[in-house]
Amino acid sequence: ANGLRDELSATSRRLGAELRGELKATVKQEQTTIAALDEQLWLTDQRLGQRIDEIVQQSSHRERISAAQTMAELAVASRSDRAAAVAAISEMASARSSTSPPPRQWGSQ
Predict the structure, then answer these.
(1) Residue 12 scores a pLDDT above 90
(2) Cβ burial, residue 9 (10 Å; 0-12/13-18/19+)
(3) Distance CA 30, CA 46 (A)
(4) Residue 108 scores a pLDDT above 50
(5) What is the 3-state secondary structure (H, E, C) of 79-93?
(6) Other CB atoms within 10 A of residue 91 CB
């Protein structure tokens, strides 16, 4: 009876140790996977930030060019035609803004 009890106790300790070892290995693998996903997310976030900055710079550049063109058109207009030129340029600007697509709303499909 004691031999059987000792054998069961030893088997229980061995199985417990195996289970703890497998659990440690699984936790370590999960930590490695999470770290890799975290790195991938960080890199994606960096690239997205850079792309947003590029788009903002391009947009600002286009706005500066448009403003410069408007100023040039005003400078060229004669004094008598200046009021008509301002009205025409305002009309063109509002037409441009009405043909621009609305800004993308994040989260909407």
Answers:
(1) yes
(2) exposed
(3) 24
(4) no
(5) CCCHHHHHHHHHHHH
(6) 10
Report the half-sphere exposure of 44 (CA within 13 A, side-chain side).
Answer: 6
Task: Residue 32: count other Cβ atoms within 10 Å of its Cβ.
Answer: 10
Query: CB of 108 within 8 A of CB of 85?
Result: no
Tens-digit pLDDT profile for residues 16-40: 999 999 999 999 999 999 999 999 9
DSSP single-letter state for residue 107: T
Q: pTM (2 decimals)?
A: 0.48
**The residue type at 19:** L
pLDDT value of position 10 = 95
